[in-house]
Amino acid sequence: AQEKFLLIATAYETLKDEETRKDYDYMLDHPEEYYSHYYHYYSRRLAPKVDVRIVILVTVCAISIFQFFSWRTSYNEAINYLATMPKYRIQATEIARQQGLLNRAKEKGKSRRSKEEIRKEEEEIIKDVIKNKIDIKGGYQKPRISDILLFQIILAPLYLYKYIAWYFWWIYRFTIKRQEYGEEEKLYIIRKNMKMSQSQFDTLEDHQRESFLDRQLWIKEKYELYKQEQEEELKKKNGNGPSMEKIPAMDEE
């Protein structure tokens, strides 16, 4: 009775599904391919039932969440670092004083809190000013949700369209019509020559970018000359410049 039950259960499992039923009929007609069908039957039966698209979507979402919180942590660490740099600290302190933020913090806690608590609140005010009121460029920029993997995948067709439109616009203006480069286009070519990302280029000081423009580094020949000068200067700093000739030893009299 048990053997009959197992046979009936196996037959039901095989014939209830249209695909397995077709495979079974095909195997009856082609018994020489028994082992191949045996493999396909069990690989399909043991395969996960979850849609692969759902697995991919969940994976992308998990990566995006991790990515965003990782960037946010790095950003907060960067703000803590910038708050110690004189350039940003002085600027943030001046803005906070002009808006009366530091005075309000002192008056608010004059009678109820210790000096240490007031100092901590002032520190938080300075960090908040750096975050929201000072233009921070480069790798210290505030992370945007549109930069995470999920949104990058969703917006990929739009980015591709924009790039193609920009490329043909560039060809039309500067190759066909031979217009002169504007400052923005010159800086773009300089950045590409230097093989720098936009965030890296944004961290440069204004006087550095002005120096690049003054030296006309968007012109390939002038950039190559500048590059050679930088390499020679680096060699000198590292002590790898041309070695000094040895002073010949004096002959003994």
Automatic annotation (TrEMBL):
TM annotation in the entry: 52-71, 148-169
BP GO annotations: protein folding
Domain of life where this protein originates: Eukaryota
Entry annotated with the keyword Chaperone: yes
Cellular localization per UniProt: Membrane
InterPro entries reported in the protein's UniProt record: DNAJC25-like, J_dom_sf
Span list, region Disordered: 231-253
GO cellular component terms given for this protein: endoplasmic reticulum membrane
Alphabetical UniProt keywords: Chaperone, Membrane, Transmembrane, Transmembrane helix
Keyword DNA-binding: no
Name of the protein this chain belongs to: J domain-containing protein
Species of provenance: Micrurus spixii (Amazon coral snake)
